Amino acid sequence: QKEVEQNSGPLSVPEGAIASLNCTYSDRVSQSFFWYRQYSGKSPELIMSIYSNGDKEDGRFTAQLNKASQYVSLLIRDSQPSDSATYLCAVDNTGGFKTIFGAGTRLFVKA
Amino acid sequence: DADVTQTPRNRITKTGKRIMLECSQTKGHDRMYWYRQDPGLGLRLIYYSFDVKDINKGEISDGYSVSRQAQAKFSLSLESAIPNQTALYFCATSDKDPSSYNEQFFGPGTRLTVL
User: Fold this and answer.
1) How crowded is residue B28: how many other Cβ atoms within 10 Å of its Cβ?
2) How many Cα atoms occupy the beta-carbon half-sphere of A106 within 13 Å?
3) A41 CB-near residues (< 8 Å, 6+ apart)
4) How far from the centroid of its chain's Cα atoms is residue B114's Cα?
5) Which of A26, B69, B105, B107 could join B91 via S-S bond, C-beta 3.0 to 4.6 A?
6) Does B1 have pLDDT greater than 90?
7) CB–CB of B103 and A49 under 8 A?
8) What is the C-alpha to C-alpha distance for residues A98 and B95, in angstroms, rounded to an integer?
């Protein structure tokens, strides 16, 4: 079992819709959870961090964390073509000593 | 100016050659990392350094070595390059302050091709 799992996609949504990206992790002691956006050929860019159970909103982005289910998700409201990218879920499970990245979910937003 | 820079941005080399990839940062972070990215495999940690005197192996360190020349500089070397080291390499930094939760900031990447 991979430590951080994501559906590779591609996930295709129409412009203006809500895109829902999901991630599961295996280590129950994980403490910090991140979503990075990566455009093709570019470097990952941090877009959301979440540390406590529940929802965290930042503009059009909402991160959701459920530690009991070992599940973290990212919702993108009013999706735009510019949101088309690969979204990497990352989990820090050693108190800051190492971050594990999922393989990413490719998102396409159709105009 | 970019906070995390990597040189070179692209490199093509031959099997058996020694290659050095360099990373510099102006973010003032103590922690620096080297990752490689392959299609379908995500980012995999090669080495990480929490300060100038602290260097640790990641999950795929075989065939690689590193040097932390200063707080701001962290170099990755391939002593004898082989074709399966063809990948996109990223340097990243993070703040040691616990309140930063180890959020990482990435350089632009180096695309390395070993023929």
Assistant:
1) 10
2) 8
3) none
4) 17
5) B107
6) no
7) yes
8) 13
CA separation for the pair B20, B65 (Å, rounded): 9
Lowest mean pLDDT among A3-7, A10-14, A60-64, B13-17: A3-7
How many residues can be counted in chain A? Answer: 111
Looking up tokens 């819709």 gives A17
Helix runs in A67-110, H state only:
none
* Under 8 Å between Cβ of A47 and A33: no
- CB-neighbour burial class of residue B13 (10 A; exposed 0-12, middle 13-18, buried 19+): middle
Q: Is B108 on the interface with A (CB under 8 A)?
A: yes
Q: Could you give the angle at the alpha carbon of B96 between the alpha carbons of B92 and B98, nearest 5°?
A: 120
**pLDDT of amino acid A97:** 64
B43 touches chain A (CB under 8 A): yes
Return the bridge partners of A22, or none: A73
The CA distance from A25 to B32, in Å, is: 24
With a cut of 80, say whether residue B40 has pLDDT above it. no
Average pLDDT over chain B, rounded to whole?
A: 93
CB contact at 8 A, A45 and A51: no
B66 CB-side CA count, 13 A = 28
Q: Report the pLDDT value the prediction gives residue B81, as an integer from 0 to 100.
A: 96
Q: Which amino acid is at B82?
A: I
Cβ-nearest to A92 among B48, B90, B102? B102
Two structure tokens written together for A20 = 């829902």
- Minimal C-alpha gap between A99 and chain B (Å): 8
